[in-house]
Amino acid sequence: MHSIHKYTFTLQHNTPILNDKKKEGLRMPSTPSLPIIDISPFRITPTNSTFTPSQIQTAHQINSACTTHGFFYLTHHGIPDSKLAQVLTLAREFFALPLEDKLKISRHDAGGPEGGDGARGYQAIGENVTGGRRDMHEAVDWYREWDDVATREKEDKGKRTCEPLKGTNLWPEEPSDLKGVYEEYVEEVLKVGEAVVRAMGAALALSVNGKENDEAVDSEVFVKSTDKSFWVMRMIGYPKLETSSPASSSSANSAVDSLSDAEMSCGEHTDYGCVTLLLADPTPGALQVLHKDGTTWLNADPIPGAFVVNIGDMMERWTNGLWKSTKHRVIHRGDGFRVSVPFFYEPNFDAIIKPLEACVKRSGKDPIHEGSTYGEHLLGKVLNNFY
Ligand SMILES: N=C(N)NCCCC[C@H](N)C(=O)O
Ligand SMILES: O=C(O)CCC(=O)C(=O)O
Ligand SMILES: [Fe+2]
């Protein structure tokens, strides 16, 4: 297949980024790249509880990817390339509009029934914060409509306020076809998310069950907890960072880590929920993934037609750390304006997430969390996300 050849070519250029300034110019020995996983065996809802050989193969690949990197490429997901291209083109067209037009869907007009600041809507450059520092990107966030959240009556018992997540999604008038295309995209990508968490359930069951555990993992556990996924879709625009530092070279290998005040397109973070399905334009070197060694950053350059997938905090909690929500960041010093559209396939807002008993045993560690709802975790994050 000609496409395989293309993938191999791309991955050979997935070289580690050096952190130590003194090593600048040297090349590290090649570090394993992110794996490529074909999800097609899990796109069909199972009719019985046994896995096919191709499902078992995919499940093993997922277990290995989630154990080592927490990141992988996903192919054969069923969304046509033309649709992916259209989503990115519309994002680019939106961000090219004058600021005053983009502010027509500002998040400052979106919060809850009373209006005011919310998490839904447009966020201008410098408004997003990661790790206490401003990010150099602009974005629009859409969430599952709040009216769909099943058991929200538990809210506001003096402990939390869901206000920032209430309100309705804000859609731009221009480009005029953005809303229709994106709403259709949400439907399609939700199915991909479901296939991925079904495969992850299988992966966990196959790797954990039958290994001196009293309890087994229910391979459908993630599907059940995401059947009303409180998803988030972000449309992000990244201007090229100014290369103000002398250490910065033309490549992504600049010793940016030694410059504690270096500008970030998006500072290092983990994602919050289950599974992130990232669609990004072809700009190389921008998205960087922290290697297991804790110091080396790997480029997660896009592969045409594939999603970059990573697991979030709730997966780490469920598996009691067997799988890690890996840190990543964006430093865009490449050419042009970069756009990406991550889709966060998350648990239901009120799903209680605690370490699975079988995973606790398998990990040989105490439970890493006592359990709480995904909504609580999300609110704790969202409230610190804006300047
Ligand atoms: N749902 C997710 N992952 N949204 C994007 C998170 C980007 C990092 C965020 N500013 C933070 O500080 O966590
Ligand atoms: O734009 C990207 O490549 C990744 C963005 C990201 O990590 C996020 O929004 O959580
Ligand atoms: Fe992220």
TrEMBL record:
Pfam family of the protein (one) = 2OG-FeII_Oxy
Print the organism lineage.
Answer: Eukaryota, Fungi, Dikarya, Ascomycota, Pezizomycotina
PROSITE patterns associated with the record: FE2OG_OXY (PS51471)
What UniProt keywords apply to this chain's record, in alphabetical order? Iron, Metal-binding, Oxidoreductase
Its transmembrane ranges are none
Name the record gives this protein: Clavaminate synthase-like protein
Q: Could you tell me the Gene Ontology terms of the biological process aspect for this record?
A: small molecule biosynthetic process
Q: Name one GO molecular function term.
A: metal ion binding
Domain Fe2OG dioxygenase spans what residues? 251-347
Q: Which family does it belong to?
A: Belongs to the iron/ascorbate-dependent oxidoreductase family.
Cite the InterPro entries for this sequence.
DIOX_N (IPR026992), IPNS-like_FE2OG_OXY (IPR044861), IPNS-like_sf (IPR027443), Iron_ascorbate_oxido_reductase (IPR050231), Oxoglu/Fe-dep_dioxygenase_dom (IPR005123)
Q: Which domain of life is it from?
A: Eukaryota
